[in-house]
Design a protein that fits this description.
- By secondary structure, this protein is α/β, with parallel strands linked by helices.
- The protein has 3 domains: about 210 residues, Rossmann fold; about 90 residues, Rossmann fold, CATH 3.40.50.1100; about 80 residues, ACT domain (Alpha-Beta Plaits).
- About 45% of the residues lie in helices and about 20% in strands.
- It contains 16 helices and 14 strands.
- A 6-stranded mixed beta sheet has the order 1-2-10-7-8-9. A 4-stranded parallel beta sheet has the order 5-4-3-6, with helices on both faces.
- Strand 4, helix 6 and strand 5 form a beta-alpha-beta unit.
- Helix 12 packs across helix 13.
- The termini are far apart.
Length: about 400
């Protein structure tokens, strides 16, 4: 694709996105649009979920990667492509390159989840593990590109990638023509820039709202400054949107076309993931759940009908277990409590009897009897409990104190 560039105008057009849509026909799925009665009731307006977690490779990334690689010159294809990613972009590049007959090398951090490493290899990439953090992995991929002539495929900072992601926006307008607000998770900005380009060109009345994790929110300060700025040490469970600096190309588009950027807490992200699993029966990674988190945190703030883009579902099972526990705790359905009791025969059984009376389900018990912090006749017990909500948690705490136990934490 060719693009006219300007510092004052977006560098991706509706024609680019429509061209990408034709290119992706038969390659990327037109993913489902599912209504959510629960979220609709909460928001007071119809809410629909755009299920990019059901896309090939488990996220929207295939769209942009395919369009970018398909646009390479023959000599560039012959040199192969290289990417750096901890997950979704890696898999998107791997499959796109394989479908186009191009050799791909993907650098991933040494600590990347094993399921994501395996999937990337199975899609056809030569996977190389390098570095402990993504910045080190990115430097290795760029050095490989310089040494070999392979084309570096950026995850978001390229017009062709943005045009490919923009096809999500065209599908939304086709599937939900009455839409008034589209809510999108934001990392580097490629997805929301593409969606905004497509949607605002055809329906300027539709609001496009971005969502970032509070600990990795680079767009609010960048928009305030008028240029991309970096957030040092971005921290969030939502690794798909844990990007410390917006891309130059998407930032220009976001600045012109996106109506608003909101932020959400880690509690909201984990609660949203749990909701998607329990209510919508959809496995969504924390980044993919960020639009739902915004709906939960700011209920009633969005004009409907609303479309929330579930951008990906590639969540590591180990992380999923932790996030679900975090989400249950945020909803008052999981309680960890540490207390001291007198170390005598039957003491633990008596404690468990108290918990039985208040209908708390014991998931795990850790019993410490020898520790310098403990008195001669004391023991410390840590309990992980399944509870029924904040009121039940308070009831459990009262029951333990009323029974004479010293609750430490």
């Amino acid at each position: 694709m060719s693009h006219s560039t300007s510092h004052s105008l977006p560098t991706v057009t509706l024609d680019d996105v429509r061209g990408a849509q034709k290119m992706l026909s038969g390659v990327a799925r037109v993913t489902a649009m599912e209504g959510s009665r629960y979220l609709s009731r909460l928001a007071g307006t119809p809410v629909h979920l755009k299920c990019e977690n059901l896309q090939r490779t488990g996220s929207f990334k295939l769209r942009g990667a395919y369009v970018r690689i398909a646009g390479l010159l023959p000599e560039e294809r012959a040199a192969g492509v290289v990417a750096a990613s901890a997950g979704n972009h890696a898999q998107g590049v791997a499959l796109a390159a394989t479908l186009l007959g191009v050799h791909s090398t993907v650098f991933m951090p040494k600590g990347a989840p094993l399921p994501k490493i395996s999937a990337t290899r199975e899609y056809g990439a030569d996977v190389r593990l390098h570095g402990q953090v993504v910045d080190e992995t990115l430097a290795a991929a760029q050095q490989y590109a310089a040494d070999t002539g392979a084309v570096f495929i950026h995850p978001f900072d390229h017009p062709d990638v943005i045009a490919g992601q923009g096809t999500v926006g065209l599908e939304i307008l086709e599937q939900c023509p009455e839409v008034r607000t589209i809510v999108v998770g934001v990392g580097g900005g490629g997805l929301i820039a593409g969606i905004a380009t497509a949607v605002k060109s055809l329906r300027p009345d539709v609001r496009v709202v971005g969502v970032q994790a509070e600990g990795a929110a680079s767009y609010p300060p960048s928009l305030a400054a008028g240029h991309p700025v970096s957030v040092k040490n971005p921290v969030t469970m939502a690794d798909g949107i844990r990007v410390g600096r917006p891309g130059e190309v998407p930032f220009r588009i976001v600045r012109h076309l996106v109506d608003e950027i909101r932020t959400v807490s880690e509690d909201a992200l984990s609660t949203a993931l749990l909701l998607c699993l329990e209510r919508a029966k959809l496995v969504v990674e924390p980044a993919g759940a960020s639009p739902v988190a915004a709906l939960l945190a700011h209920s009633g703030a969005f004009e409907g009908p609303v479309v929330a883009v579930l951008s990906g579902g590639n969540v590591d099972p180990v992380l999923l277990q932790r996030v679900l526990r975090h989400g249950m705790a945020a909803q008052g359905r999981y309680l960890a409590v540490r207390l001291r009791l007198t170390d005598r025969p039957g003491a633990l059984a008596t404690l468990l009897g108290v918990l039985t009376l208040v209908d708390a389900n014991v998931l795990d018990v850790s019993h410490v009897r020898t520790d310098p912090r403990l008195g001669l006749t004391e023991a410390e017990v840590e309990l992980h409990l399944e509870t029924k909500g904040p009121e039940h948690c308070a009831e459990v705490g009262r029951a333990l104190r009323d029974a004479g136990y010293t609750v430490i934490d």
